[in-house]
Amino acid sequence: MKNINFIIVLFVIPLIGASQGSDELILKIRAEFQRINSSKYLEKIELFNDDFMDYRTDGGGQLTGFFEKEQLVKITEWIGLSQGTLITDYYLKDGHLFFAYEQEYKFKNVVDESGEWIGFNTSEEEIIFEGRYYFNNHVLTKKLIKGEQMFKQSFDQAEFLEHANLIYQVLLKRKLPKKE
Fold this sequence. Notes:
There is one protein chain. By secondary structure, this protein is α+β, with helices and mostly antiparallel strands. The chain has helices spanning 2-38, 157-175; strands spanning 43-48, 60-68, 71-80, 84-93, 96-111, 117-136, 139-147. The radius of gyration is 21 Å and the shape is globular. The relative contact order is 0.13. Mean pLDDT is 86; it is low at 4-19.
C-alpha cells in the first residue's frame, strides 16, 4: 500500500503544479490582451488588399496594426471570402506573439421553396468557428476551439507563427520611418 501511495504522490503532485503554472500563465495572458483592447491610446495603421496580400480574395482584405508608442501590440487581419469572413487578432509583447483569437463567419444560405440552395445572403453572417491560441516563448501552451472551420484545416503552429511574423514585419515597415 505504501508503494501505491508513493507512486501516486510521485506522478500526481508534479501534474498539479504544472496545471497551476499553466493556469497562472493563461490569466496573465488574458490580463494583457484585455489591457491592450481597453487602451484608448493606440495608434492605428490600416493596410488594404495588395498592400499586404499576395492575391486578392473575393471580398478583399484589411490588415490593421495597433501601436503603443513604437511597439506593435495588436494586429487584426480581416479577409473577405465568397462564403464569409475570417478575422484573426494577434496580440504581441516585445514583438512576440502571446495570444491569437481567430473567428470565422459564414454567410447565411439562401434556399428556394424546395430546399435547394441558391446562394448566400451576404448581409447576414453567423459565427461558425472560434479559436483561442495561447503562446509562451513561441510555443503553443493552450488551444481552445469552438465550432468547425469552413475549410477544416488543421492548426499548424509553425505556419501560424510564420504568418504572424510576416504580417508583423509588413506593419513595422509601414510604421517606422525609412532610413536613408
